[in-house]
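> example.struct
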C-alpha cells in the first residue's frame, strides 16, 4: 500500500465514504502506478461496478486533488495519487511498460530559464515524461 488509509483520505478531502470511492482508492493504493478508468473497471469488475460512477469518482478525486492526470500519450487519461513524492515516468512506446524515476533536475533548469525570460517569474508545476523502448522491445 502506498497511501494513507482510504477512509482518512476521503475524510481529509471532505468526501463521504462510499463503496465505490473506497474501491477506487484501494485500486490506486494496491497498484501504485498510473492507471486509467478502464483498468479500474477491469479490476473491480464491470458487471459489479457502474462505469459512470467510476468516471464521476475519478473526476471528483481530481477536483479534490487526491489524484492528478499523467500524460502517457495513450488513448485514455491516466491518473495517480497526487501526494506521492515527486517523480516522473519512462514509457515504452511499443509495449506500454511504465517505469518511474525520481531524479528530477528541472528545478535547477527552471531557475535558469526564469532568469532569462521576462514574461514569467514563477513556475508552479511541471510534467516530465520520457518515451522510448524498453530493453525487451529494443531487442
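> example.seq
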Amino acid at each position: 500500500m502506498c497511501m494513507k488509509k482510504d477512509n482518512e483520505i476521503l475524510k481529509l478531502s471532505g468526501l463521504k465514504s462510499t463503496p465505490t470511492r473506497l474501491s477506487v482508492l484501494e485500486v490506486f493504493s494496491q497498484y501504485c502506478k498510473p492507471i486509467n478508468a478502464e483498468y479500474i473497471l477491469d479490476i473491480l469488475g464491470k458487471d459489479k461496478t457502474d462505469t459512470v460512477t467510476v468516471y464521476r469518482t475519478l473526476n471528483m478525486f481530481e477536483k479534490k486533488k487526491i489524484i492528478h492526470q499523467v500524460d502517457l500519450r495513450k488513448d485514455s487519461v491516466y491518473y495517480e495519487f497526487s501526494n506521492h513524492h515527486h517523480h516522473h515516468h519512462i514509457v515504452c512506446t511499443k509495449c506500454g511498460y511504465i517505469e518511474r524515476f525520481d531524479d528530477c533536475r528541472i528545478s535547477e533548469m527552471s531557475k535558469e530559464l526564469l532568469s532569462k525570460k521576462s514574461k514569467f517569474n514563477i513556475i508552479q508545476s511541471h510534467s516530465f515524461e520520457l518515451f522510448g523502448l524498453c530493453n525487451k522491445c529494443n531487442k
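> remarks
The beta strands are 35-36, 67-70, 78-81, 88-92, 98-101, 129-132.
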